[in-house]
Amino acid sequence: MNAIEKIAGIFSKFPGIGPRQSKRFVFFLLTKGNDFLDELIELLNKLKNEILMCDSCRRFFPAGPKKEKICNICADKNRDSSILMLIEKDTDLENLEKSGIYKGHYFVLGGNISVFEKNPEEKIRSKELVKKINESVKSGLKEIIIATSLNTEGENTMEFLIKLLGAMAQKNSIKISTLGKGLSTGTELEYIDSETIKNAIQNRH
Ligand SMILES: [Zn+2]
To answer: Strand pairing of 60-62 and 80-87?
Structure first.
């Protein structure tokens, strides 16, 4: 395989990108020339070296020169440590933060679970989540909001999470709620507007 085919192979693994589009991306890069490629290479290196995954919520964040292990949201003492929202991906978190409505903590699941998945616990960060909840209990966790997408995978993930966390929540008197009300089917948190987010959070149940 030559470099064109190899890079196209990598692009085809991107979400929503097929083999034809991935080839177009490669030729686009080649057409843009060396300066563009050099800039991209430099930025990819920065992405590798300057963006870390938070040890606590598992989101990606730009670390400072000290290479701190905890992101600014987890480190913020003004945030409400009694609420933990479980979301599928970083872009959901970005959209929620943009709305400025939610002041609790997050955990990024890193994906969702398809209905016939044989190893559901491996499709999301199950072990890390259990660890996070154990730690959050010590800092006064009272509620877990499951905020997965309103599609088949999201609902299946929600059911898995309720099973995974049910006993633990009950033992520690933690309420488990969901954002279902006020959101239409097919909704991904990544795309909803601030007003809808606000309503969904206020009407959680
Ligand atoms: Zn964090």
So the answer is: unpaired
Query: pTM, whole model, 2 decimals?
Result: 0.88
Distance 108 CA to ligand 1 centre (A): 9
Task: Give the chain's domains with CATH numbers.
Answer: 3-53 (1.10.8), 76-202 (3.40.1360.10)
Amino acid code (one letter) for 32: K
Q: Dihedral, CA atoms, 42, 43, 47, 51, nearest 10 degrees?
A: 110
Cα of 65 from ligand 1 centre, angstroms: 17
DSSP class of residue 108 equals E
Which chain residues have CB less than 5 Å from ligand 1, an ion? 54, 56-57, 71, 74
- What mean pLDDT is reported for the chain? 93
Ligand 1 centroid distance, CA of 147 (Å) = 17
* Chain centroid to CA 59: 7
> Which residues does the chain have with pLDDT short of 70?
180-182, 186
What pairs with residue 106 in β-bridges? 85
